[in-house]
Amino acid sequence: MTDTLSQGNTLLQGSFSGTGQSSTIKIHRGTVSLSFGSGSVTLERQGADTNWYGVTDGTWTANASVNIDGNGENYRLNCTSYTSTITYEIRGNIR
After folding, report:
1. pTM score, whole prediction
2. What CATH number belongs to 2-94?
């Protein structure tokens, strides 16, 4: 997994070349876009107990673009299965 975070327009982008997690980001409002080779990616939110939990309807196995209203909570993408490169991009009001 490699990713980069830019401030301003606020963008986290990267790719999975195996299973693993993206960087943690604080999302207020944003859009998650995924472009698939082959695999499975879950959007996860960090709970008050610091554990990570899958977001309802947040697992993808095909190209997707989803709006997120995160209320300033910590999120990450978790690639749980992998066959070929999966790229991702998160835009919007994140920190």
Report:
1. 0.84
2. 2.60.120.10
Q: Rounded to whole angstroms, how far apart are CA atoms 54 and 79? A: 12
CA distances (Å), origin 17, targets 2, 10, 59: 8, 23, 18
Continuous segment of H or E residues that includes residue 27:
strand 25-35
H helices present in 1-95, as ranges: none
Which tens digit of pLDDT belongs to each residue from 40-63?
Answer: 999 999 999 999 999 877 788 889
Task: Determine how many CB atoms are found less than 10 A away from the CB of residue 34.
Answer: 22
Domain ranges of the chain: 2-94
Handedness of CA 78, 6, 48, 55 (dihedral sign): negative
Q: What percent of the chain has pLDDT over 70?
A: 87
Query: Kindly report the CA angle at 31 between 53 and 79, in degrees rounded to 5?
Result: 45
